[in-house]
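User: For my dataset I need records formatted as: sequence, then structure tokens, nothing else. Please produce one.
Assistant:
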Amino acid sequence: MLLEISGLGIVFYSPEVMADVAEGTDYFKEGFTTEEQVQAHIQRGTLVGFATGSPGRFILNFREGYPADDELAAFRYKQRLGLRCTGGVVYFRDLYDLLDWYPECPPERQLQLEDGIYHVTLCSNRPASGILGDNQEIEFYLNKLSQFPRLAKEGIPTLCPD
């Protein structure tokens, strides 16, 4: 999936999570600005977001399960999150879409996924150009679980901290 963003992060969620947010709402300001607001969503796996460290063009590659230890070791950037999928679909959006909310999400930014709870492992490296967001690939490993995973409870998830 190709995702071009002008913001500094990516959010993903099942559409039911945002169904009550009125079009035109600045949901970023209302519900996704502070560490406490972001963590409330992260700990429930509802509106899941992470900082990319840069705007740009990202290529999301989806995989099942967890990365093997040698695969994980090959990545400079890693992050673990949780996701609750409902309705069989997950939307992937620019964080800045929350500033002036509109519920529609193009089909090419939707992932069909079986309902359930997922432990999400994000893995990435700097692209060949050395510039974050320059056709940067992000591996999305999705491992289905029977209960929500324990996650870090502090901070705003950041995939590329430098």
